[in-house]
Every structure is written in C-alpha cells, then in structure tokens.
Design brief:
Elements: H1 26-36, H2 43-50, H3 54-65, H4 90-100, E1 105-109, E2 115-119, H5 124-134
Antiparallel strand pairs: 1-2
Length: 137
Amino acid sequence: MADRKFRPEIEVLSAADAARRRHWSDADKLRMVEESFLGHCQVAATARRHGVSRSLLTTWRRQYRHGELVAGTSAAFIPLTLAPGAHASMPPLRAMARANHPDSRLEVVLRNDRRLLVPFTMDPEILARLLRVLDRS
C-alpha cells in the first residue's frame, strides 16, 4: 500500500562539511586583476578560470585602481613640471622609467577631477592633445 503523506527530504548542512575560506596573497590578487584588464569583458572569464566570484574580482579591481592593492612595491611619485617647449627633458625621464620599471604609468589629475592613467612612454604631443580635449570644463 502506498504512503500518501508528503514527506520532504531534508538535508542538514554543517559548517564542518564546508571548505574553509581561501586566502589569496596580494601577488595572486594582483596577477588576477592584471589578467582581467587584458581584454574586453574579461572579468567573468578570469574569475571563472581562477575559481573566485566575479564580485570579489571586481572588488580587487577597484582596490587596484585606487592604489590599495599593491604587492611588494609601492607607487612612486616623481615631481614633474611641464612648461611650453620642455620636451627636451622628456627622453631621459622616459629612458630612466623604461630601464627601472618598463610598465610605469603616469596618473594625470585634471582640474575637472578626471583622472587619466597613461603609459610613461606615451608621446608628449599625443598626451597634450588628449589633455586639451579631456580638460574642458
């Protein structure tokens, strides 16, 4: 004879059954973040490849952009003043940055609070044209 009562199956989950949280080193986080910046729409694919959630990788990307995620190195600031016709002093600076840190970038903060990250090796003429367009209030 069939039992006609509804009896749902219940599964009891225990904290002891679950894996503990993983801890990523800053170098691993930095490697994943930089990989996610390589192409278009790479956040979800990179997160899947490394077994982290997309939201966690997005948080790490935000920390990276704000300079909070740094592995073993810190940002270096070089005092720089640009004057008309000062392009003669740029090649030695470029050579120095390329020799010490080939992936060096400049952060330019404009008067309208826009921020621009450009490679240190960018042509000054192109940068000047770009700044004129972006600095419009």
